[in-house]
Structures are given as C-alpha cells and as structure tokens.
Amino acid sequence: MKLTDNVLRSFRVAKVFRENSDKINCFDFSSNGETVISSSDDDSIVLYDCQEGKPKRTLYSKKYGVDLIRYTHAANTVVYSSNKIDDTIRYLSLHDNKYIRYFPGHNKRVVALSMSPVDDTFISGSLDKTIRLWDLRSPNCQGLMHLQGKPVCSFDPEGLIFAAGVNSEMVKLYDLRSFDKGPFATFKLQYDRTCEWTGLKFSNDGKLILLSTNGGALRLLDAFKGAMLHSFGGYNNSKGVTLEASFTPDSQFIMIGSEDGKIHVWNAESGMKVAVLDGKHTGPVTCLQFNPKFMTFASACSNMAFWLPTIDD
C-alpha cells in the first residue's frame, strides 16, 4: 500500500494508551517497526508492541529521569539522556534492566541525541553549546565540537555526515571521518527571533532537512544546497512548546502535532497542506513519528495513540 493524500486523510486513532501520568517527552520505533519505546517526564520507559497494539513492559529511571530515548542497533538496548541530577547519557539493557555504560561529559541539559543508522556511533547536543561524538563501546567522548549557541543535530540516513543546526540561524554539515576539520558546508538562514529551533531531521532519501521550532512554523531545506524550499505553518503553538515534526518513510510528506491535539500533514514537494487529523489528545502533541516499516504512525501527549488508515486506496 502506497501513501497518498487520500490514504493520509483516512488515518484515524486505532488505540489510545494511558500508561503515563506526565507528558511523553520522546519515543522511538525499532528499525523493524515491531516495537516503539517511550520516555516520559514521569520517569518511566514504556515498551509497546506495534503488531499486537499493546504495552509490553514498563521500566523506571526514577533517580535520573529519562528523555530523548533512542534504540541502538543491538536488540533490546537503548540510550537516553537524563533530566535529573546530572547530564550523563545512559546505555540501558532492556532485557535485564541494567546499565551497560554511562557517557559523562555534558554539563548542561542534552537537547539532541542521534544514533548512527549504520554503526555504534551516536552524537549528542547540549545547552552547554557543544556536540559530542560517542561510540557505544567506550565511555569516553570520541569527538567534541564547540559551537556558538544551542545545537540541534542528526545523522543523515547513510551515517556518513551529520548536520548541526546552531543558534537557530545556521545549518552546518560535517563529514563524520573528518569533522575535526570543521563543516564542509554552512547554510545561513534568516534569523527568526520569535522562535528557536528544537529539532533537525533528514528525510530518508537524504535530500531534505526539516527544522522544527518552538513557534508556529517548520522549515524545509534542500540538504545539498541549503535553500529553503518551504515554510509550513497554520498549526497551533502559542505557548512555545517543543513539538516533534517528522517525515513519512517515503520522504513525501511532513507531519507535526499541535497544542490543540491535531496532526497537520503537508506534501513535501508542493508545500500544500494535505490533511488535518484529530487525535483527540488531551494536551499538546509533543511526539509524532511514522512507523519505518508498517502503515501506521504514533502520536503522544501524556497518552500514546496508534493510528491506522481506514481506506486501502
């Protein structure tokens, strides 16, 4: 089944889970699309089975809190940032609920975490104005970049380069093998003082970069030339909430939640709005991602919703 405008418009909430007492701050699908794992401000980690459509287990990170949870390539392991006590990144085995390793280094809150799509490398960005490069096998930082402001960062789909959005006004592209030589490309965008960048993602085809903000607009860039292709707005975000925006796996559509619980969808090429879906969320939709393998997506406030299409087109 192919994603089309009509299929997207037909999506409805199939299941709602009320496992959390506070907002879900992040979730991540496994690469095979069979599970999704969430982190929440209530210090819990909930693992869901996407095929059976039910929560499988709940773990807690009461002491350190949990945010920015990401699957690694090893089965049943995740990395996540702390939001209490310190700013160490933790590597957890879900199988026995034990820490495998700690990654200390940042001295302010970690605001970006991206796992390499191809190996055990990951990058983190922090309010301490640095990006650090790590390897899951070593607690020592493998590389350090000092920046001029708050960073958002992500690997490209091939894991060869990573992009850093700095100070909400420029995007720098680094080659992973020679990042210490500085960026090989820098794109300067017009600064918008009404909002800050809160996220950066590549499309799966590697051609587009999506910048999300804590305001009422998203920006879509050409990943090679840095030209701004579209700015997407018309969704509610008056309180400066960090709302996650995502591409669909085919790179054709862009989606974001809003503070009134609705999901807005645009065509990436034309920039036209395709759908506004009502998720009946009780709070702002802080997290939203499409399943990488199956025709379903998830959205979250303090509740988690699984969506399915209602037509076959």
From TrEMBL:
Location of this chain's protein in the cell: Nucleus
Where is this protein primarily located? nucleus
Q: Which Pfam families has this protein been placed in?
A: WD40
Record keywords, A-Z:
Nucleus, Repeat, Transcription, Transcription regulation, Transcription termination, WD repeat
- Residue ranges of the WD repeats are 17-58, 103-138, 235-276
Question: Record's Gene Ontology CC terms?
Answer: Set1C/COMPASS complex
According to its UniProt entry, this protein's organism is: Aldrovandia affinis
Q: What is this protein called?
A: WD repeat-containing protein 82
Q: Which GO terms describe its biological process?
A: DNA-templated transcription termination; lncRNA catabolic process; negative regulation of DNA-templated transcription, elongation; negative regulation of lncRNA transcription; nuclear RNA surveillance
* Recorded superkingdom: Eukaryota
- Similarity comment: family membership: Belongs to the WD repeat SWD2 family.
SUPFAM superfamilies in UniProt: WD40 repeat-like (SSF50978)
One term of GO molecular function: chromatin binding
